[in-house]
Amino acid sequence: MTKDNHRQQFPALANKAYFNYGGQGPLPESALEAIYEAYKRVQLGGPFSGEVGAWVVQEAMLTRRAIASELAVPAETIALTEDVTVGCNIALWGIDWQAGDHLLLSDCEHPGIVASVMELQRRFNIEVAICPLAATLNEGSPVQVIADSLQPNTRLLVISHILWNTGQVLPLAEIVKVCHQTKVKVLVDAAQSVGVLPLDLIDSGVDFYAFTGHKWWCGPEGLGGLYVSAEALADLHPVFIGWRGIVTDSSAKVLGWKAGSQRYEIATSAYPLYAGLRSAIGLQHEWGTIEERYAEICRLSKYLWERLSELPDVECLRKSSPEAGLVSFRLMNGMPHKQLVDLLEKQGIMVRTILNPDCVRACVHYFTTEAEIDKLVEGILRQMERV
Question: Among residues 285, 371, 271, which one has the least CA distance to residue 60?
Answer without folding.
Answer: 271
